[in-house]
TrEMBL record:
It comes from marine sediment metagenome. This is Nucleoside 2-deoxyribosyltransferase.
Amino acid sequence: MKIYVASSWRNTLQPGVVGALRDDGHEVYDFRNPAPGDSGFQWSDVDPEWEKWDAEGFVAALSHPIPEAAFSKDMAALDDADVVVLVLPCGASAHLELGYAVGQGKTTAILLTESGRSELMYKMVDEICVDLQDLRDWLLDNPPVLWTCRVCGCTNDDCSQCIEKTGEPCHWVEPDLCSACVDQVGGDP
């Protein structure tokens, strides 16, 4: 199973979660080490003074080649994942990754190992686990659901034909209808 672990650079649990899931035989994307020789994206690679940016400086930095490449790499891994696991505590980027995964119909979980803020929208995910073993057991017992488009036959595991057709990955409008085919269905999807 391909798993995308969304978390924070400051989260000390993240490396152990990645390691444990790999020990269980999963293919796990690690944003800290996304590829051999790649130690992940840091804003300080763009500008050592990045913490002093104002809003305009931040927006301008998003177009710099380093964050552009990192974003593309992370999004490709996110699109390729069967499951997305949010490891708390973490910030806005990891929560956006989880929200994207929910919207894509991916299997999702949150690892909540300590009490924190209560968040109502966490109800969107498939599972909330309170310790690493709970997460490992849940992943073994709950393989991701495979959605298949009734029009083109793409799945939430492989939308390569939609990418060829539209130039971008599809998303799910219904469990049996992808966004690339919604216009081909008469009336309401």
